[in-house]
Structures are given as structure tokens and as C-alpha cells.
Amino acid sequence: MPYEEILDRFKAQLKIMGLKVTRERVIILEEVMKRKDHFDADQFAADLSVGGVKVSRATVYRTLDILHDMKIVHKTTLGHKHQHYENMVDRAHHDHLVCLKCDKVVEFLEPRIEELQEKVCLDHGFVIKDHSLQLFGICGDCTDDDAEANN
Amino acid sequence: MPYEEILDRFKAQLKIMGLKVTRERVIILEEVMKRKDHFDADQFAADLSVGGVKVSRATVYRTLDILHDMKIVHKTTLGHKHQHYENMVDRAHHDHLVCLKCDKVVEFLEPRIEELQEKVCLDHGFVIKDHSLQLFGICGDCTDDDAEANN
DNA sequence: CTTTGTGCAAAGCGTTTGCAGAGTG
DNA sequence: CACTCTGCAAACGCTTTGCACAAAG
Asked: DSSP labels for B96-117?
């Protein structure tokens, strides 16, 4: 989806929600669209200011929340004390594999796990709304390191 | 496993770790053993003091960490900003289903999900060490409420 | 008697919020 | 103009920590 289209969609949704289109909100949307990685709000704000753009941390948090409500951004906990955000435009749901040594994050989708989750919920009389799955391990590169270290 | 046995194991492990057996640590172990639910450190400390036992919050956090290292206690994030602890003595690994309305927590174990997780890791060259899976939904009781509310 | 533990209160850390002035529609 | 936003700094909620005194081995 081209940036122009997202921007229009963003503006339209803001209007629907009774919110205003501000310089800061557009800047943040633009920066989010550049990101393909998993980022945290604080670092995001820092990067903006390094780029010479001044937007306060508070506004970053507030705007990422709006983008989350609009499903433009997804929030995950990847085993750290802070939240990670990721741009979800043109992207399907997925879960994460996190390396405990180098913090590398790999995305994956395993439909059979999703199905089984549905089944578990059904069996317990729950209507599933969401789930959170992270696998923690040691990635290939870091396992190699281990091998070397043991020589 | 009888309490006496756990206590002995606790004392032995403390010794191995070069730590001392203190009144507070024993009190906390005892209280943990009484718990079958998912609790947070703060509430745990509060309950102790209601029970007339004085142990500081700091010591509760410090001791729960030790118990976690000893695998006597397990730490999970159930979608709140604080950690939940649970007594793992005589209990097998399991994941959690959380009701978004009433916060009810149901434990489940789906071996096929565990297997698929292994497979996903393998496929990505990871050695799995741990995982975190929470399903969020609306439980049977709360779905009923919805139905009533819509009448 | 040496070493570790405890309580307290303060600090940390990510995140949220109240407020006064700035900007949008 | 009326109303929402922003930036700031202070507040927050959970957790950790420095320190002086207490207790364990």
C-alpha cells in the first residue's frame, strides 16, 4: 500500500475519531512507515530527534496508541520490560522467536498452532480474542559461538 | 511432596548457593506453598502483613527471585504490567488462558502446540529454551453476561 | 567475628498525565 | 473562536538498590 494511501486512511480515521491532523501525528506515521523492525517508543523518539525532528516522548506514546487503535501498528512484549511496536501495514499476523543471546527477532506463522489455540479455547468455553506467543532460544549464529567457546 | 521435604530441599539449595537460611526466607517459602493461584509480589507482601507476619516488600521480591532460580516458583506475564508468580512444586509446565473481562485464569497444556513450537525453532535453526504463550478471550460466564446485556 | 540478609526509603525505568500555551478546523 | 494537541515536568506503578543495622554460620 503506497504511503499516500495510508496517509489518507490515517487522516480519514482521525476525522472519524474526532481527532485532529497535526504536524506531529503525520511525522510519526511517516517514521513508522519507514520501519520494518521491532522498535520501542523511547528509541523511536530518540531516532526522531537525531533526525532533527522534534516530537516529545509523550506525543510519541500518545500517537503510537492511536496507531495501535487503528491497527496500523502492533504491540508485543518480547521478553523485555518495555513494549515493542511494529508496523503492520500490508503484513499478516505472526508470532516471534527471540534469541536470548543476541536479541535477534525472527517472525513466524504456524497455522497449526493457531488452530490448536482455537481448539483449546473452545474446549474451555472461551471465545478467543487474541494471543501472545514468544519462543525464546539460541539462534544459529549464537550456537556457533558456543561451539567455538568450548574449543 | 510434603512441606518438610521442600523445606529441606530449600535449605540445601540455599547452602549450595552460599546463601543463609533466614526467618524471612522460610516464611516466604511457607506462604508460597500455601498458594495454588497466580499471585503478584505486592499482593503477596500485603497478605503476609495482614496475616500478622512482617516481611518487607524488598525481601519478598528478593526471595521470590531465589525461588524462581530454584524452579520452585514460576514467573509469567498474564497481560498486566506486573509479573505473576505461581507455585510449581509437583506441577507440570502449562500455559494460560485469560478472560479479558473477569481476569479468570485457566491453565492448559496442549502437547501438540509444544511439539510445533519445537519444530518452528528447529526450522529456524534455534535451540528452544523457553516459551511464553497466553490466550486472551472471553470466558463462558462472561459470554453469558454479554447475552443477557443484549436482551 | 565474618559474611550475608533485612528494612527502609530512595532511585530506576518505561509509561501516563495535568496543565498552560500552541495549533487545528 | 472553540476545541484539541503538544511539551514539559511531575506523577505513576512495579521493581530494584544503597546503606546502616541485624542476624546467621
From this structure: EEEETTT--EEEE--HHHHHHH
DSSP A61-85: HHHHHHHHHTTSEEEE--SSSS-EE
Considering only CB atoms, B135 lies closest to which of A77, A99, A121, namely A121
Query: Minimal Cα distance from A126: which residue of B?
Result: B139
Q: Which of B31, B21, B37 is nearest to B60 (CA)?
A: B31
Q: Which cell numbers in the block locate residue B86?
A: 505461581
Question: Hey, what's the torsion of the CAs at A140, A144, A145, A148, to 10 degrees?
Answer: 170
Does residue A24 reach within 7 angstroms of strand C, measured from its CB?
A: no
What type of residue is A85? Answer: Y
Report how many Cβ contacts below 8 Å link chain A to chain B.
Answer: 112
State the amino acid at position A92 in one-letter form. Answer: A
CA distance A108 to B71: 29
* Nearest residue in A to B111, CA atom: A116
**pLDDT values of chain B reduced to their tens digit, one per residue, 151 residues:** 899 999 999 999 999 999 999 999 999 999 999 999 999 999 999 999 999 999 999 999 999 999 999 999 999 999 999 999 999 999 999 999 999 999 999 999 999 999 999 999 999 999 999 999 999 999 999 987 665 555 4
Instruction: Give the one of A100, A106, A127 whose C-beta lies nearest to B138's C-beta.
Output: A127
Which residues neighbour A91 within 8 Å (Cβ) at sequence distance 6 or greater? none
Q: The whole model's pTM is what?
A: 0.91
Which stretches does DSSP call E strand in A5-150? 73-76, 84-87, 95-99, 105-108, 127-138
Choosing among B121, B126, B129, which should be mutated to test the A contact, i.e. which has the most A CBs within 10 A? B126
Cβ burial of B40 (10 Å; 0-12, 13-18, 19+) is middle
